[in-house]
Inverse folding.
């Protein structure tokens, strides 16, 4: 068929119209998003107005429940007047409640919302209570428990939390028991019998969600207690764990719906400090509670001062800064430094000790006895600082913590709120400081990549840190769906304190440059890691590429800020590449990148600009770009560079010999122990050598490709250059793990607070770092649980043994090994959700729980999958050894 020139024109126009339509769609999506944000804000303001106009609004809870009506459920279920009645003390139980508050709990008065919550639950209402960290949520089920007939069932995610609470209740003569993996048979028997005994000696029973999911005996006893009217209440602590959208999702919380289905008349009380309305809606469904009353106290902890500091890329400098802050501002005062990994916990603690600060590490892989000692000593004020991973979080209730410093940003705003919420629980002023660094974003990114909304949440946290013009509290308020009055901060955040310490810059040209760099790299079959993108834009990298792109005169800090901004706003996105051992991150164009093609699209960004130097740098760069604009999109080899850029370009040119076409992936590798630098260096050198031999040929090919590109011709069948990480950054990662903070027993502080990593427990089986080779690639699936790290390699190791394998078998084994490594990593990753759980013997038992969270083919059971994994591995093994 003849497709003449006419058709070509039509096709060209069609392409252009389609491209324009794409742009319009993006703009519509943008506007729709803006519309929904504004509508939400409008509704919130309307609610605020309505509340303000309500003459009968009681003073008792108004200050703290400003957004309680955001749970529209309240209003539909109960009128405001009726709701206010629950702030009163004219119920049949009121006297009892008052008396126990003073006599049992030794408290003089209620904090805002406590009495309302207690009255509501005692009246049999289902209730979700969202109250800030440290405000006294526990009292809202503990006090009703002692005022009610029968037993209150409390679901808690952590054994440590459970132990702490039971110990505390015992200390005030309130009888409470717990059932967990370490309970003896006899104890379990007594507890189960007590459930149906009207004269039972305990008022509260603490269990983990897993216990509910697994113990049929417990469920049957609860059923009997229910029928005998002896199950008075169900409290689900940290209720946000039900929802995948919550920041600490636990699969077994999903099964708790059985409670309301089996015991519909028992009032349920869900408690959390961090849940957005969508998370609560999700929890409502999961727990099968219909139209619960939602009481929401303001998230605002007025005594906490929030601050973000830019982290120096030189670790030494940031440690110095932290140390001097602690020594100058918090002399002899208690605090926490949160870090990213186990290794960081040990090294930062050691660095602080070197600077005469009494700091001890705390992380999930420490001996439980050591953890318990550190916790205890810190609580007693004998240790000034705990340098901790997230393992030291929920349930840490020390009143006089004056500072919480984040050496690395948290993985979400919810996490940050929880972690920083350990500060100032005595209502006195305390500081929450985050050190925010470019490379940390990508370290965390590799950690949260497996989580369903991990990336989005991380970017919101990054946005919080990057922000220079909005009150930090207002960002949290929007995040927690709260109506925010700007006066509410009272200059208790760095932004409100240093108002006007920023300038608005038009970064449209900068953004176009970044997009162009990625496009050029992609045309050269190159993938750029975040670090390489920064360097490329600043004029480093292969000369061939430099000739094709526009470099910048912005400072490194500004370059990083712009790239992060583009990532947060969707002009860039991360691209993950997985190997059995590592996760690589590369930067790609995001869904909004095409908008930059339109000349009318502009992009501005607020930047901190303390020095005029950096300010003028930005302006100079913008001016330079404007003059260049239109002159070229791709600079030809003969073009003479101008101004500052010329200096940079020639400086880089001088270094050209040293710059190779390399890749610098950010790597998360939690499968291998830290490698000696020498070994790493050797591996890199080997890879470099391999690359060197290819580079010349490759450069020739690139030249041709570029020529083709300019001529708008696509060379058919061009081979992609294999990506060979030359510079591998080995990151030691502790996945967001919560674990058992041991019980106090009065022991000494560990003699060697900072343990060397000699016997570090890896989070996944240890493996050689090299790429698996066919001849040594027998699937050495460990005979231990996936969490164990001493995998024994039974693969043939000598050349003679290897030679008996056919090439196809070797290749297949190699694939299989990769597959299992990846599966084991995933299983292991998910297993961390279960660290607080009873360890059960047997491989199947060990991986069953994590497997629940994996997506299995329909009609395939978990046991079948587990068994088939093992059968396939052993089958392959036999094949190899034959
Ligand atoms: N009405 C009150 N008056 C004084 N102190 C109180 C009152 N209610 C609770 N507290 C104290 O506040 C502290 C924090 O209480 P609790 O552990 O219940 O907080 P929380 O809301 O569960 O916090 P988090 O979510 O951070 O665990 C406890 O030490 C508790 O004794």
């Amino acid at each position: 068929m003849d497709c003449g020139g006419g058709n070509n024109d039509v096709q060209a126009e069609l392409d252009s119209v389609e491209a324009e339509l794409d742009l319009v769609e993006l703009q519509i999506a943008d506007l729709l998003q803006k519309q929904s944000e504004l509508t939400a804000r409008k509704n919130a303001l309307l609610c605020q107005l309505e509340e303000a106009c309500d003459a009968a609004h009681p003073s008792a809870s108004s200050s703290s429940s400003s957004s309680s009506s955001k749970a529209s459920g309240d209003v539909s279920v109960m009128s405001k007047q009726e709701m206010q009645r629950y702030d009163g003390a004219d119920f049949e139980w009121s006297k009892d409640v008052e008396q126990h508050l003073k006599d049992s709990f030794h408290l003089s008065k209620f904090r805002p919302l406590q009495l309302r919550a207690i009255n509501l639950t005692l009246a049999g209402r289902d209730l979700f209570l969202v109250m800030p960290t440290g405000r006294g949520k526990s009292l809202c089920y503990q006090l009703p428990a002692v005022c009610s007939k029968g037993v209150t069932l409390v679901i808690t995610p952590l054994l440590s939390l459970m132990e702490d609470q039971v110990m505390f209740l015992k200390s005030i003569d309130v009888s409470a028991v717990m059932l967990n993996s370490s309970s003896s048979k006899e104890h379990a028997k007594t507890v189960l019998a007590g459930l149906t005994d009207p004269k039972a000696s305990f008022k509260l029973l603490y269990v983990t969600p897993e216990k509910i999911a697994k113990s049929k005996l417990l469920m049957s006893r609860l059923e009997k207690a229910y029928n005998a009217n002896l199950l008075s209440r169900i409290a689900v602590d940290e209720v946000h764990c039900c929802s995948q959208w919550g920041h600490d999702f636990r699969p077994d919380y999903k099964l708790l719906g059985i409670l309301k289905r089996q015991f519909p008349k028992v009032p349920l009380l869900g408690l959390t400090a961090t849940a957005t309305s969508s998370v609560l809606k999700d929890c409502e469904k999961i727990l099968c509670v219909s139209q619960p009353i939602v009481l929401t106290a303001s998230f605002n902890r007025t005594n906490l001062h929030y601050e973000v500091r830019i982290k120096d890329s030189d670790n030494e400098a940031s440690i110095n800064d932290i140390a001097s802050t602690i020594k100058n501002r918090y002399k002899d005062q208690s605090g926490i430094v949160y870090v990213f990994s186990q290794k960081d916990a040990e090294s930062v603690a050691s660095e602080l000790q070197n600077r005469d600060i009494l700091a001890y590490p705390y992380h999930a892989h420490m001996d439980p006895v050591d953890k318990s000692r550190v916790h205890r000593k810190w609580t007693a004020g004998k240790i000034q600082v705990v340098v901790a991973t997230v393992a030291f979080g929920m349930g840490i209730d020390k009143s006089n913590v004056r500072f919480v410093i984040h050496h690395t940003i948290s993985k979400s705003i919810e996490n940050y709120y929880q972690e920083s919420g350990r500060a100032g629980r005595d209502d006195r002023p305390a500081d929450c400081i985050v050190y925010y660094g470019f490379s940390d974003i990508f370290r965390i990114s590799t950690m949260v990549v497996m989580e369903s909304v991990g990336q989005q949440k991380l970017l919101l946290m990054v946005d919080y840190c990057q922000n220079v013009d909005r009150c930090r509290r207002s960002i949290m308020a929007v995040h927690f769906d709260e109506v925010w009055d700007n006066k509410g901060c009272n200059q208790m955040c760095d932004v409100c304190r240093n108002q006007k310490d920023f300038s608005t810059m038009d970064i449209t040209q900068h953004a176009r440059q970044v997009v162009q760099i990625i496009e050029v790299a992609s045309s050269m079959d190159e993938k750029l890691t975040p670090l390489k993108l920064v360097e490329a834009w600043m004029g480093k990298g292969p000369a061939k590429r430099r000739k094709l792109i526009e470099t910048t005169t912005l400072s490194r800090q500004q370059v990083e800020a712009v790239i992060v901004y583009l990532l947060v706003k969707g002009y860039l996105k991360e691209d993950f590449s997985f190997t059995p051992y590592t996760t690589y991150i590369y930067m790609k164009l995001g869904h909004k990148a095409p908008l930059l093609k339109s000349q009318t699209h502009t992009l501005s960004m607020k930047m901190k600009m303390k020095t005029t130097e950096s300010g003028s740098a930005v302006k100079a760069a913008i001016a330079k770009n404007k003059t260049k604009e239109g002159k070229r999109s791709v600079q030809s080899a003969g073009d003479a560079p101008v101004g500052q850029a010329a200096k940079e370009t020639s400086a880089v040119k001088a270094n050209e010999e040293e710059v190779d076409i390399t890749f610098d992936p950010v790597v998360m590798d939690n499968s291998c122990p830290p490698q000696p630098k020498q070994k790493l260096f050797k591996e890199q050198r080997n890879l470099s050598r391999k690359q060197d031999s290819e580079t010349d040929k490759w450069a020739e090919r690139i030249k041709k490709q570029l020529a083709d590109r300019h001529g708008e011709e696509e060379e058919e069948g061009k081979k992609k250059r294999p990506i060979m990480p030359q510079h591998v950054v080995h990151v030691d990662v502790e996945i967001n793990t919560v674990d058992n903070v041991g019980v106090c027993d009065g022991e000494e502080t560990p003699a060697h607070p900072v343990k060397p990593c000699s016997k570090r427990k890896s989070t996944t089986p240890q493996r050689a770092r090299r790429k698996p080779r066919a001849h040594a690639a027998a699937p050495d699936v460990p005979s231990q649980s996936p969490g164990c790290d001493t995998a024994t390699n039974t693969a043939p190791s000598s050349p003679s043994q290897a030679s008996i394998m056919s090439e196809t078998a070797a290749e297949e084994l190699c694939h299989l090994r990769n597959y299992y490594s990846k599966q084991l990593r995933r299983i292991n990753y998910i297993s961390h959700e279960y660290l607080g759980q009873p360890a059960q013997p047997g491989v199947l038992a060990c991986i069953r729980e994590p497997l629940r969270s994996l997506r299995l083919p329909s009609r395939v059971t978990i046991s079948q999958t587990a068994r088939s994994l093992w059968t396939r591995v052993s089958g392959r093994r036999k094949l190899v050894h034959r």
Notes: The chain has 32 helices and 18 strands.
